[in-house]
């Protein structure tokens, strides 16, 4: 069953109804959900509580720079309301279709190690959360956590296992503008630059284009609000597109990826797409309508995030978001992990060595439009936040719609991921990735035990927990699922040929650079 509470009182009633019946619960949001099974309730008759209608601004105190919103407010509406009040949320993820409650639960972030950093949860100074309670308290209670409350560091990155966030209070800054310029250089000093780029530019990021041997550097800095410019970011990859074009584009992608797997053709197609994105300035516009040259200067709330397809009208699917599940459009795998900033140069050097062995295989293994997106995240006090300053690596890859179908050169991404997680102690993004990435991840968080103690107090019966969350948090079981084909789907790290697709020529092999890695590969060498 699904309930749509409109007020905190109705939210308390929804939690109480499920708690009194001992039913498992999870929260759903308006436009999206995480890639792992975080929003799936446990049991066979779990309840879904949607925050779609809990989407209002509660109060704004412009003098104190404080803004309180309901947890179902999407990022787009939040930053626009802040801007209208003369305030800016200093950092955010790049897609604005996320809700504030959802993005906090998974530790979502932008790119910065300046100030408090890029994770939105670092700007949370208050939170109201509804949790189960005994019958004597009506089966549900509202807990109010202020800035100094010891449980706030558990609640502001919670994976949704503590309860339902009702309201969030954020500490904002006076309205400011940003100046954005993209510069492409060769990747000969990529490993050196990854260590310093985030210190040079407040909102700087990078995108590595491995087959082209280039790095796209984003020079992105705060400028005074009086600086001329009314720039806008309307990401090309987040716009509504004619559905026919999306379906045709996916069909062409399937022919290239699942047909003869012609690496040369894939590389050529990827270069064309990357060049097209560059010519269109990645969706940045100087005056909100046209791009006339760098830098693009605009207000923070017009630059920090995008995703205009969520604004598009319902037109009978004549147009769609690229990932709309109702059409046969984009379908991809998203691998995202972070590595301590101090270790990032050595990791980048290993990625480059792997690329140098066979550059063209990266055209199939990694989406050449995006490359590897690299962002910066500061150490957090949140129990499930980053323990130290980190570099986040985000990789999008083609995924077949046929269960068990191997991806061409999937071993490229699988080896990169295993190098990151196993050799360099990387952390998987809580809202992305495949099963095997979470195996043992919780042990890398020094304050995980403190988080679990709060969880036991807030929800002793585990009504907001599921089999998946128990596995990820190390409470019971493992996220790995070992069976035939599990290595192909990322359900396990292969240890036997049957975990790959031997009937299609894919066998379990050591990594090419990291010998301890085990990947599904067409390599003839065992």
What's the CATH H-level superfamily name of the largest domain? FAD-linked oxidases, C-terminal domain
Query: Strand tally, please?
Result: 24
What is the CATH T-level topology of the largest domain?
A: Vanillyl-alcohol Oxidase, Chain A, domain 3
What number of domains?
2
State the strand order across the main sheet.
17-11-13-12-20-21-19-22
Mean pLDDT over the residues? 96
Q: What's the helix count?
A: 14
SS strand fraction: 15-25%
Shape: globular
Give the fraction of residues assigned to helices.
Answer: 25-40%
Q: In CATH terms, what is the architecture of the largest domain?
A: 3-Layer(aba) Sandwich
List the helices and strands and how they pair.
Elements: E1 2-3, H1 8-20, E2 25-28, E3 47-50, E4 57-61, E5 66-70, H2 75-84, E6 87-88, H3 100-105, E7 124-132, E8 140-145, H4 152-155, E9 164-171, E10 173-174, E11 177-186, H5 190-200, E12 205-209, E13 214-223, E14 232-233, E15 241-242, H6 243-258, H7 263-279, E16 284-285, E17 296-299, H8 300-303, E18 319-320, E19 332-340, H9 344-357, H10 361-365, E20 372-377, E21 390-398, H11 410-423, E22 427-428, H12 448-458, H13 467-472, H14 486-489, E23 507-510, E24 518-521
Features:
single chain, 526 residues, alpha+beta, Uridine Diphospho-n-acetylenolpyruvylglucosamine Reductase, domain 3, Vanillyl-alcohol Oxidase, Chain A, domain 3, eight-stranded antiparallel sheet, five-stranded antiparallel sheet, 22% strand, ALO_C, ascorbate biosynthesis, FAD, flavoprotein
